[in-house]
Amino acid sequence: MNGWLNSFTYRIDMNPLFFVTAALSVVFIALLSVGYQTVKAAIANPVQSLRNE
């Protein structure tokens, strides 16, 4: 299988750094969005929310 894959003209070397960077980016974006929603919920006035329901 490696011989067949190596015969391609356009190929790149897979570096684990690509996967680590992508995973860290996803975790950062997830923490940022969860943190934003948490702060937004903590600041909200529960009386206003209950009054609207």
Can you give a write-up of this model?
This protein has a domain at 16-52. It has helices spanning 2-6, 16-43, 46-52. 75% of the residues lie in helices and 0% in strands. The longest helix is centred in the middle third of the chain and has 28 residues, at 16-43. It is rod-shaped, with a radius of gyration of 23 Å. The mean pLDDT is 89. With 53 residues, it is an all-alpha fold. It is built from three helices and no strands. This is ABC transporter permease.
Briefly summarize what is shown:
The protein is mainly α and 53 residues long. Helices cover 75% and strands 0% of the residues.
Key terms:
3 helices; 53 residues; rod-shaped; single chain; mainly alpha; 0% strand; ABC transporter permease
| Major β-sheet annotation | none
Rg estimate, integer Å: 23 Å
Q: Rough shape?
A: rod-shaped
The H/E string reads HHH
> What share of residues is helical?
over 70%
Low-confidence stretches: none
- Summed up, the helix count is 3
Measured between the Cα atoms of the first and last residue, the distance is 62 Å
Instruction: Tell me the β content.
Output: under 5%
Structural class: mainly alpha
User: What is the typical, i.e. mean, pLDDT?
Assistant: 89
